[in-house]
Known about the structure:
Number of strands: 5
Helix content: 25-40%
Strand order of the largest sheet: 1-3-2-4-5
Amino acid sequence: xxxxRQVAASPMRSASGTWAVIADLVADTVAQSSALSxxxxxxxxxxxxxxxxxxxxxxxxxxxxxxxxxxxxxxEITTVSGTAALTLEENLDPVPGAAGADDFTIHLPxxxxxxxxxxAAVDGHARLSDAVPPAPETKVSNSGSLIDREALRxxxxxx
Length: 159
């Protein structure tokens, strides 16, 4: 399921502070799975920290998200800067859907001129990728409608 999270950057936080918030969000989401380790997510985000701070500081994450893919989670994380960051209502809760995950990948954007730095970070940890993330699942199960139309008709007609 596709989810998004926006994190306030400058002037609310420094690039390092913004990266720390993003790293915690990723690690807390991965930690929901009993098969995955929060520590492994922390290590992956630490391996990407130098380039992550550059992505934040240069404003690349405003347009090009970091994408966490873990089980049913497909979360795009972007930053908001300037006056919009001052009024942003952040949702930094772990993204629901990772409880059943047995694998995760953190897809980093690779914009010019940071492609070499992103590639070096990706080469530093197996959970990082500079590939385009897979499309989120949009298929609805064939188990029928989520709305019981007959129950709805009965409730309306009883009024």
